[in-house]
Prior knowledge:
By secondary structure, this protein is α/β, with parallel strands linked by helices. Helix content is 28%, strand content 18%.
Amino acid sequence: MAASSAALVSYLFAPKPLFPSPGRKLLLRSSGRRRASTIGMELEPGKPVSQFKAVDSHVHVWASREEASERYPYFPGHEPSLPGDSEILLKCMGEANVDGALIVQPINHMFDHDLVTRALKKHPSKFIGCCLANPAEDGSGILQFEHLVLKEGYRGVRFNPNIWPSGQKGISFHLSEIEELCSKFPSTSVILDHMGFCKPPINDEERKTFSGLLRLSKFPQVYLKFSALFRLSRNSFPYDDTGELLSQAISSYGSNRIMWGRYLIAHLIFSDSFYYD
């Protein structure tokens, strides 16, 4: 994408349904080579919406300051300004009638997945996990990924370009690269987090980028997360300029390939997000 909208790409896979219910199947299309695939919602005809479970596709949890000092340290420069442990998340979910959530490894714990792993084991009926890909040159990230998936039960992996060497050099994750991967691996489904960071376009370059995001809908394995609206909007809360983005996304992808996610705490300013995502 354009330099201003590098995509956060997540891949999810699983050998069994996620949060199964009588009214909805959450299906995962596996690549067959231990690669990732993503949540695809298949609604059964004739079932009322009230029977479907509500699943938040993007939340983060992080340690309290006490836990961080004793067991789960924050990554330097990413100390959170707000509380956000799994018990707070469960309370919020209960108040909002949300049945389950995908916990994405937060950047403020970087590649230390111990805190998220604890939450997944403590509440297996409520949470599934998406780990963060570690681009370590010595290959240790691959070993960690295999451990998290095969031993700890993580169901997906996220690639964050901001922590890769190319991201540090200002080189964005280009649409052409995603298109190439989608063409080569049609059975591996893909999630573009936060609408690929596409803001409501106001110039030709941004319109071209957003059109490219919509063009990815030609690949049936690609899904969009309508999430982190504070990062997409040019306005303050309630981010009313993002409605047109959603409308066009639904027109291109269909509602069954749009996933809703909100983080954990209701972030109202863009700068807060760098502590967690």
